[in-house]
Amino acid sequence: MAKELGITGTQLKTWRLEIEAFGSMEAKRRQKADAAEMERLAEENEILQMGEQANATGPRAPANAFFAARAVK
């Protein structure tokens, strides 16, 4: 194939290795971005769950239950 392209086999191999290396770097970059997003979402989820627990067990729990029951009807 290199001969058909008018280049050396070494050049073709170099290009192939460069493409593979770039693909690997891109995959690692995506993995890091995904891991950071998962960490952010886990923290956000924890904050939201703490808020739900505070609403369910806080001093306004009876009032919250009262108004929630009325809102459903």
What would you say this structure looks like, in words?
It is a single chain. With 73 residues, the chain is mainly alpha-helical. It has one domain. The chain has three helices and no strands. The radius of gyration is 28 Å and the shape is rod-shaped. It starts with a helix and ends with a helix.
Radius of gyration computed on alpha carbons: 28 Å
Mean pLDDT: 84
What profile does the largest beta sheet have? Answer: none
What is the count of structural domains? Answer: 1
Shape field: rod-shaped
Q: SSE string, helix = H, strand = E?
A: HHH
Strand content: under 5%
As a percent range, the share of helical residues equals over 70%
Task: Characterize the quaternary organization of these chains.
Answer: single chain
- Helix/strand-derived category reads mainly alpha
Low-confidence stretches: none
How far apart lie the N and C ends?
Answer: 74 Å
Tell me the number of helical segments per DSSP (H or I, 4 or more residues long).
Answer: 3
